Structures are given as C-alpha cells and as structure tokens.
Amino acid sequence: MDHWPFIYASYAIFFIVLIVDAVGAGGGRRRLLQGLQGRAAREQRRSQS
Amino acid sequence: MSPGAPLGAALGLLQRDLLLLLWRQRADALNPLLFALMVATLFPLALGPEAQMLSRVAGGIVWVTVVLASLLSLDAVFRGDADDGSLDQLATCGQPLAMLAGAKMLAHWIGTGLPLTLAGPLLAYMLGIERAAVPTLLLALLLGTPLLSMVGACCAALTVAMRRSGMLLALLVLPLTIPVLIFGAGAVDAASTGGDPSAPLLFLAAGLALALPLAPLGCAAAIRIGTA
Amino acid sequence: MNRFTLWFHKMGSPPTFYAFAERWRPWLLGGALLLTTVALVWGFGYAPADYLQGDSFRIMYIHVPAAWMAQFVFFVMAVSGFVAIVWRIKLAEIMCIASAPVGAAFTAIALATGSLWGRPTWGTYWVWDGRLTSTLILLFLYFGVIGLYRAIEDRRKAARAAGLLSIIGMINIPIIKYSVEWWNTLHQPASINVIKGSSSIDASMLWPLLLMAIATKLYYGWSALSRAQLMVLESERGKDWVRELAGLPMVGSSSRPVEPATRSSTT
Predict the structure, then answer these.
(1) Chain A neighbours among C 73-102 (CB < 8 Å)?
(2) pLDDT digits (tens, 9 = 90+) for B147-169
(3) DSSP-assigned beta bridge partners for residue C50
(4) Are the CB atoms for B211 and C168 separated by under 8 Å?
(5) Of B1, B134, C95, C165, whose Cβ has the fewest other Cβ atoms within 10 Å?
(6) What φ, ψ does residue C54 adopt, rounded to 5°?
(7) Is B92 left (phi over 0), alpha (psi -120 to 50) or beta?
C-alpha cells in the first residue's frame, strides 16, 4: 500500500487545523477594537441627542 | 456549633431528599427503573433475538442502560433546590458544604443507583446472561453506581446555573462515566468468558475510594461557583 | 518577595499581562514556525525510512507532538482552573479558557493523524483500545469545557465552572498515559523516556520529534496568549487603558462627560 497519501493527508490536517486555530486566536483583535470604537461612537451620539 | 452538627445537618438533608423523592413524588420514583427496563428491551429489538449473541453482550447492555438511567435523574438533584432558593441556604448555612453535597449524592444513589443495582441482574437474566457472571455484575454495579452518582452530581451542580441544561449535562457527564462503563462492563465480560474479573473490579473499587473523599469537595466547589 | 512571586503578582494585572503577551507573541509564533520548518524538513526529507514501517512513520512527527500537547494543555487548564477557583484570579480564569480551543485542535489532530497512520501500518483506521478511546474521551471533555463556558452567562462564573470541569476531567489523563501498560493494545507502548535518557528510537529520527515538541509548545503559547488578550480586552472594555488602545478618548477627558455604556467589572 502506498504510504504517501496518508503522510500528505496527515501533514495537511496538521496545518489546516492549526491555521484555523490561528485565525481564531489572532484575527479577532481588530474587529474587537473596531467594535469598541463603534460602541463609543454610539454612546456619544446617544448622549448628545 | 455543637459537635455532630455537620453530620446531623447532612442526615437531615438526606432524610428530606429521600422523603421528597420516595414518598411525596413517589409516582416518579420508579422512573429510572422503568426507563432501564425499556432501554434494555430496545436492544434485543434492535439487534435481533439470537440468544447466543445477546448473552454475549448482555453485561454491556445492562451497563449502558444503567449509565443512561442514572443520567436521567441527575438534573433533579439540584434543580429543585436551586429554584426555591434552598441551594443558596445550603451554601451559606455554615455547615460544611461538602457533607451536604455528599448527602445529596447519597440520596441520588439510594433513589436511582441502588434500585438499578438490584434490578441489573434481572435485566441481565432477561437478556440471557451467563449465570456465572451475575455475582460479578452485582458487585460491579454496587461499586460503579455510587461513582456514577457522585460524578454526575458534580456535573449537575456545575450546570444548575443554567436554565435549559438538559443536553449539556448529558454531554458533560457521559465522558466522565466512560471509564466506569469500561471497567464495569469489562468485569462482567471477563466473568462471562470464564476469565478473572478481579482487575477491573479493583479499578472500580480504587475509583470509588478516590471519589468518596474528593467528589463531595468538587461538588461543593461547583455549588459555590454557581451561588457565589 | 522573590522575583518570581513579584512577577506572578504583576501578571495578575490585566494591562501588565496584555503588554507582556504583546511583547512575547511575535517571538512565540516566529519560533514555532522556524522550528516546525526545520523539524519537518528534516523529518520529511532527511530522516531515513523506518525498517519496519517504511515512510509512514514520518506521520509520527505530527501525531506524537499533537498527542503530547493534547494532554499537556488539559493539564495546564486544570492547573489554572485550580488557581482560578481557589484564589479567584481573573487571569487564571482567562488562561484556562484561552487554552481550550488549541487543546481541542491538537487532540483532533492526534486522533485524525493517528487514524491515518494506523491504516497503512495496522491495517485499520480505528480500534477501540485504551489509548484511542481515552483520547477520544479527552476530545469530548474539551468540548464539554468549551460548551460549559459558553452556556453560562456570567463570564467569570462560567470560567470557574469550566475550570472545575477540567480539574474533574484530569482523571482521564493518567488513564490515557497508562492505558498502553494496563491493557494489551494495538497502540505502541512508550518508546521515549526523557528522564531516564534512553529511548528505543534512533537518534537521527528522534531529533525532529523533539524539535516539534518544542515548536508545538511555542505555538500553544502564542495561541493561548492571543486568545487571552482578546478575553482581557473584552472583560476590561470599560477601563481607560483599553479605551486608550482602541484610540478612544478616555472617560472624563473630553469636554462633555461621556457615560460609559458598560460598568467596568470589579476584580
């Protein structure tokens, strides 16, 4: 049985799963800070109206 | 605080819970047994009535049934107290919460685990288990059902903070009960095939010895987290 | 108070922790990527083929570090959960929860790659032996911890509840570790012994494995610290230092006093 497809698949799984994890870990920061800015802007508008 | 007060408090709690469970709500008291009976009946219907095959898996079926039936009554362990505020009272009354948690675990075991232990051999007979394996089944259930009650109560305490915790409770408890299932069913399997069941039984006993002091502490910690 | 204790106490403060994490993140990720590249090129291309298994043993360089991490991360979660429950340190709660997704990822990788490794070598994708079953249970426990955290409203209570669950789940770790000794099993018994210094693997095959072990730990550090930073920002969002980070005017510093929409939580 040719072993190489299994080897490639294993390495691919390793990288794909960890890249998904990396996106989840590192990616949310900008969204979070933008969300805070958005929230602050809404507060401003509400307190000024 | 008088000496013996913690024990008295725990016994009082036990008495109240048993009264509620076995007398006031006695219509529901048989539910775990009925559920076990029905689930045990499902297996021959699904797998086919071939006697030899059923006899081989009888021990495993009984164990799965017991685990599921024990799971069903777990939510009720703390739900009633959480709803009417008694849980907060228990947490702040000054008695050791671990002892009170232990009383609740014992109540669950008396109401669910013990009947299932006694009914287990009957269910196994229904499924055609090897006669020689029945004492082992009884002993394994006797050692394992308290474990199920104790671990289950810890998880029930963790999820009592939530409203619709039913499915999540099952997802939390089942992985933790799998070792009990493996050793319990393994013991019965060993006895059915003429082997020596003492190794899995000893593992169950070891687990019980470990859980008896630690599980009430864990349960108390869980209650404190929920009521803090 | 010695230096370590002082450092530990300082780390309990969210802005200090955030700055610490911000400083170390690039190094952790960079180190992980570098070591991974070196180790996998070495293991993939240069290590000799195993005389029994042929080339499929190269999966070991993924599978074994992933399995080690699966257990290691759960252990870290249990320890930080313990610290969180006993001392109610907010950062301990956060570190516990921040570690869970990576741990689950490594566990899933270990199970999947183990399965792929088993097919050419043992002839089967799966067998219900002690180690595989208990690792599957570990994956369920990870999901349970994550699920419990998401199901409780109060974030701090949720973190402590999830932490307690990971402490209870620790019982599974010795079962995984010793399952290959307790039961006759298809899975290979331990062949690496760091403490005794003797291993039954040839050195030329061993080094990439050790490098991957370090690389995965560095990656775990990056991932957990990153998630922890996000959680810190979320939980401290009313505080001045977070507003400064987001480029917002601080509370009370503009001409018209702005009422913060959220009350900052008391530590």
Answers:
(1) 101-102
(2) 999 999 999 999 987 767 678 89
(3) C54
(4) no
(5) B1
(6) 75, -145
(7) alpha
Chain A residues touching C54 at Cβ < 8 A:
3
Average pLDDT over residues B113-141: 93
Coarse DSSP helix, strand, coil percentages of chain C, rounded to the nearest 5 percent: 75, 0, 25
Cα separation, B51 vs C51, whole angstroms: 47
Burial category of B102 from C-beta neighbours within 10 Å (exposed 0-12, middle 13-18, buried 19 and up): buried
| Distance from C-alpha of C215 to C-alpha of C223, rounded to nearest angstrom | 12
CA B59 to chain centre: 17
* Chains sharing 3 or more CB pairs under 8 A with chain A: C
Furthest C-alpha separation in chain B:
63
Whether the Cβ atoms of residue B153 and residue B215 lie closer than 8 Å to each other: yes
What is the dihedral sign for C-alpha B171, B175, B176, B178?
Answer: positive
**Identity of residue B23:** W
> Position A19: which residue type?
I
Q: List, for residues B14-67, the tens digit of each pLDDT value.
A: 888 888 888 877 777 888 899 999 998 999 999 888 888 888 899 999 999 999
Distance between CA atoms of C32 and C59, rounded to whole angstroms? 18
Tell me whether residues C164 and B218 touch, CB distance under 8 A. Answer: yes
Residues of C in contact with B209 (CB under 8 A): none
Three-state DSSP at C50 gives: strand
Class of residue C150 by CB neighbours under 10 A (exposed 0-12, middle 13-18, buried 19+): exposed
